[in-house]
Structure formats: structure tokens, C-alpha cells
Design goal:
This protein has 19 helices and 21 strands. The protein has about 575 residues and is of the alpha+beta class. It starts with 12 loop residues before the first strand and ends with a strand. Bound molecules: glycine. Glycine (GLY) binds next to loops.
Length: about 575
Amino acid sequence: MQIRPRLSALLLTVAACCSGAVAPTPTRVPAGGAVASAAPAATSVGLGILKAGGNATDAAVATALALAVVHPVAGNLGGGGFAVVRMGGEVAALDFRETAPAAARADMFLGADGRPVAEKSLVGPLAAGTPGSPVGLFELHRRFGRLPWRRVVTPAIHLALRGFKVNARLRAELEFGRELLSRFPETASVWLPHGRVPAEGTLIRLPRLGAALQAYAERGPQALTGGSAAAAIERTVKKYGGVLTAADLAGYRAVWRVPIRFPLAGWEVASMPLPSSGGIILGQTAGVLERLGWASLPADSVERDHLLVEAWRRAFADRVLLGDPATTRASEGDLLAAPWLDRRAAEVDRSRATASRDVASWQPAPRHELPQTTHLSVVDGAGNVVSLTTTLNGSFGCGVLVPRLQILLNNEMDDFAAAPGSPNLYGLVQGEANAVGRGKRMLSSMSPTVAWRGDDVIALGSPGGSRIPTATSQVLLAVVVDGQGLERAVAAPRLHHQWLPDEILAEPGALAAAGLDELRRRGHAIRSVDRLGEVHAVRRTAAGVLEAVADSRGPGSAATTQP
Ligand code: GLY
């Protein structure tokens, strides 16, 4: 197998920031489809749109907007994301990642001693990048949607205005975020009414968010990124010491990019290029494993686990070179080129772990995974697929809510390297290419991915920061290489390695006792963790059978239109 980055065709299209709805292509979509997302109410919205004749893009955008109402920990209009789609045979990737505000400076998150101050890049609006979701979701629909824009936004308006009930997940997330949310009175008054985490079953109504969505339905992104909405965002940001302005919001553009594409066991895979490292990590992992003959080794064997970890170790070591595609120190072409993959595969010792310090030199401290990003996957009756990951970065972003719009702002600035060599929220060590710079996009790990073989199509992805590409690649390998069913592949216990810290993270059951001993004997450090990622995946087989799987690690929800 050869990795084939299609960089010669690297023609980027900057999406026009449209005002007013543009009529989408009215192609008929055969009935049927499936949706998997982090919240039952959002999955129902997506399914309703499919049943109303919408295509996968209509359903994905409607699901994302519903998540912006009922899943405030990650669903958003104040954050950003990526989508990889295969619509009518056309494969495309939309970058609606946040950007650094014009006033951002390389040293803005450093203290007097020149060291990063995590609080600055995580809490409060200084941590907020210019949101990309309002323009991005609109642009995705403009290019590939079928139903009128207003129809796609309406279910989210209804959820916000009529209300929805707090479920166990939302209650647990609000409990987890209580300290952050209570720092900002505007946020607390919405999400901690009377200073308390609302009980399960409490009805939440968000009238201002509903009105903001109504305006978005009528006027497009301009309703959220211009005029009085932008002024309200700037006012709230200024109040708490942030630098994001109305001019940043007005200047934001989503960008169509050429997806990373590579073959895998007879399937074609497409995933997200820079400014996400996700597709490169997936492509490098697949390319190195193919060279090491991974597919022919026994499933669930120590040999496989060892090689998988060694491939990830090297892919994440290269990640330190990456950043905004305009300033990155290595391109997809460099890192996915056959000679580089040959060399990486040749470096792997089949019987010993390579110490990460021998692959490269930075050393971070471990941090915890937080349930922040969210992924949704949709397939429609025509086999069109949308894989969309969106995020506020940390849970509830920077904690600040714009009262006039009831929109939470992200803390994506922490995804920049505040100082090369210092770990971010995910313990990721990053390089100069990802230093803070005005207007730059911060490097991501999000990996919305689609794969197909003939008429058999899959869409998948995950939240989890640096764990995203490793969770996604394990499910992809299980389905595509080993022919596992989607449900089993998503449920299987996972491993993770990200170069630094130099340790394997293992979910319970991922390694049998003998495997654990053997990996330790080979020189791997291993640490147990509760969970790695939360993959939401859908599939439509060539025979038209639909599958939708929400990861049992979370209370997400998946459904098909088939009874
Ligand atoms: N905010 C996490 C990521 O983009 O990877």
C-alpha cells in the first residue's frame, strides 16, 4: 500500500461568508439513513431531517445545531470544527477551525518567568479563538445541503425555545464544570440556576439562544458574526479581559481543503488535513503498519499492540512539526511520502519499545482526558456520508457565555504551543510551527473520517484531544482490516500512545495479563485509564443495510431509519 497524498491538487477554497440563504441542490435522496451523536435529542433531530427528505449534510448540520443547544459541554456556535464528507461521490473537507484574534501575540500565555500559564489559555475569553461554527455549518449546508436552510435550523430553534430535559450526562457534565461555570455570573445564571447544578429531568429553556438561532435561520452567519450580535460578543469578551473583536468575527472564513486520502486493505479512506493533524496521524499509522505486515498478524496479539504503539509514537513525534498550513514546518506531502514511511517502519524494533526520547526530545507532564469535543456521523439513503467533529476545546470552553446570545465561547487558544516544549491540556508537546500568531489556526487532532469500498461506506470520528486519531484508527483498522462489525469494533477496549509522555494508556481489558507482561518486558511503560475516546460511527453496506453505533463509553445515541 502506498500513501497517496493528493497535494498536487492543493487548491484551497475559501468559503465566502454568505449572508442570506443560498438554495441548495435539489437532488432527490432515497429514503433511509443513520445518525450517531453524543445526545439522543440531537440524534432524533438528524433522523427527523433524513425522514423529511434531507440528505446526510442536512442531517449532520441539523444534528450539530441541536448539539449546540442540548450538549453545551462541546456542541457549539462559539467554537469550531471540521467535516469530511462524501456526497454524490465528491470527497471534500471543510475547515471551520477557530483562528487566533488579530490582537494575539506569541507570548500572550506566558508569565513573567517566560513559562506558560495554563489558566490564561484555558479560562476566560483570552483563551477564545474566533469561532468558526456559524460560518462553517452554513457553508457546509450551502455546498452540499438539499433542504432549505431554515428547515435545517428549525429543530434547534424548537429545542432552545420549547426546552429540553437535563439528562444524566448533562447533569454529570455540569457537576464537573461547576467550578469553571460559577466564575462567570452570566454563564452560571443559565447553566447553574440558583447556583445549583439542575437535577435530572429539569426543563431548560434558552430563549436568547433560540432567538439567535432564529436570526441565523433568517440571515445566515452574519446574524451571529456581524451587527449587534458581534458587538455583544466583543462586549462580554472585553469585560473579562479577552481580545476577540467584532472585526475578528466579521473576518472569519471557513476553508475547503483537500482531504488526506489513502488506501487501506482495499478500502479508500479520507480524513482531515491540516490544520488538523488527525488525517496525517491516521495516514502515517496505516502506512507504517502496512509496511510492517500488521494485517497478517493475529488479532489481539502483543505483536500487533507493540507495532501499533510504535507507529503512533512516530506519528506523534512528527506532529511537533505541524501547525497552521500557512506556517507548518512539514507538509502532508513530507510526512506521508513513501520514503519517509519506509524509514519510519524500518526504525521499528519488533522486540523492543523505542524510547520516545530517542525519537525526539521534548518531555511533557501527563494530563487528564476531558469530555469536551463531540463527534457525529451521518449516512443517508444514497450512501452519502458526513463525518463532523466540533469542539469548544475544554469542557464548556473558556467558561464565558455571551448573555445576549446564550452562546459559550471556546478555549481553543490552548491548542497552540504557548511555549514549544510545554504540554497543553492533553499533555501534547508542540513546536514552533504551532506558536500563537494573529489570524493563525491552532493545530488540532480531530479526525473526522470516511471510508468506502464500492457502495459500502463508513463515517466515524471521536472526541478526546490527542486520543482522537488513536481511537479512530483502532476502530478503522478493526472494521476495514479485520472485517469486524461496527458495534464490536467500537466497543473493543483501546490503547493510546502519543510519543510524549512515553507511555501506553490502556483501557480495562485492552491487554490480557500475559500481553501486559510481554509489553513491559519489551520496554513499554503502561498506565491504566478509564476510557479513551468516544467513537460515533455509521455504515451503509453495499446491500443497503444500515448500522449506527454510539460508543458505550458515553451516553450518546445512534439510530437508523430502518425499523
Ligand atoms: N481541541 C482539541 C483538538 O482540536 O484536537
